[in-house]
Write a structure and sequence with these properties.
With 289 residues, the protein is of the alpha/beta class. Helix content is 38%, strand content 14%. It has a single domain, classed as TIM Barrel (Alpha-Beta Barrel).
């Protein structure tokens, strides 16, 4: 299996349609198949309303063989006010059904390879959410299910719900993950950062999901000065680690981003990574393909 999943969160907003098509074509030519998107990408862009990424993928797919691509999309984290994450549309049965119809329309397809519950909805009983998600698999609209940004107790509670009601298991789990540890006061909500404890729990789940990490390269921060880390990761230990990684990469005649992705992959986490150009993507994957 190709070692990374292509992140498409910026397609149609930060990355133009033409640039997005170029990256998608190049990724496919390299042997990649899996595309990571969501119905709320990229609501945080000044002109974004959500759905832009799926729309670009759908337009691109029209000239491709649908079976050559695996589309992994997510629902439940669309901002209700369009600006903040204080209130999300959630995972009620009615919103799931409306969301999947909208996703299929934007993607111009009749099925989704992997559907994620993007952010846990604690206002909707898990049994209601997962019965509806499972029904989409039963009818063939979705091939497999995943969860993203669920806290450990809720993951275990969901497993009990699935086992007790003979529902469809989740085969994928996705969390924020990189080699640097965030500052203790860093705030990412509603995103959840995967730490060593959570990784251990996920690794030993009886359903054996694939563990996927998003934002592994922190928007290129491994390629800049260690003094310019994002605020959430700006501390001395991280600066030292970045400096050491940069030295290792230079000695190996590769990019620091490539070294980071290789390290994460070797650890047992599948990275979701994006690139604004196919050249940058190839540089990032030097040690993986």
């Amino acid at each position: 299996m190709f070692p990374i999943i292509l992140g498409t969160a910026k397609f149609g907003t930060y990355t133009s349609r033409e640039e997005s098509f170029s990256v998608l074509d190049g990724y496919l030519e390299m042997g990649g198949r899996r595309l990571d998107t969501a119905n709320n990408y990229a609501v945080w862009h000044p002109d974004g309303k959500g759905g832009e990424s799926e729309t670009v993928i759908g337009e691109w797919l029209k000239s491709k063989n649908r079976n050559d691509v695996e589309i992994m999309t997510k629902i439940g984290a669309q901002s209700v006010d369009g600006f903040t994450y204080d209130k999300l549309d959630g995972l009620s049965p009615s919103n799931i059904m409306q969301s999947i119809d909208d996703c299929l329309s934007r993607l111009q397809t009749d099925y989704i390879d992997v559907l994620y519950a993007h952010v846990d909805d604690e206002n909707t009983p898990l049994i209601e959410t997962w019965k509806t998600m499972s029904s989409l698999v039963e009818q063939g609209t979705v091939k497999a299910l995943g969860i993203s940004n669920f806290k450990e107790p809720r993951v275990l509670e969901l497993l009990d719900v699935i086992n007790q009601n003979s529902l469809e298991p989740f085969k994928y789990v996705q969390y924020r993950y990189t080699l640097l540890s965030p500052n203790i006061d860093a705030k990412f909500s509603p995103q959840i950062v995967m730490n060593e404890h959570l990784f251990g729990v996920l690794k030993h789940l009886e359903c054996k999901p694939e563990i996927i990490g998003y934002s592994p390269l922190l928007d290129g921060c491994y390629e800049v000065s260690p003094d310019e880390l994002p605020n959430e990761y700006d501390n001395l230990l991280n600066a030292i680690m970045v400096e050491e990684l940069q030295m290792q990469a230079e000695e190996s005649e590769t990019t620091t981003s490539a070294l980071v992705l290789k390290t994460i992959s070797d650890y047992g986490v599948t990275p979701v990574t994006a690139a604004s150009s196919i050249e940058r993507l190839k540089d990032n994957l030097k040690l993986l393909i």
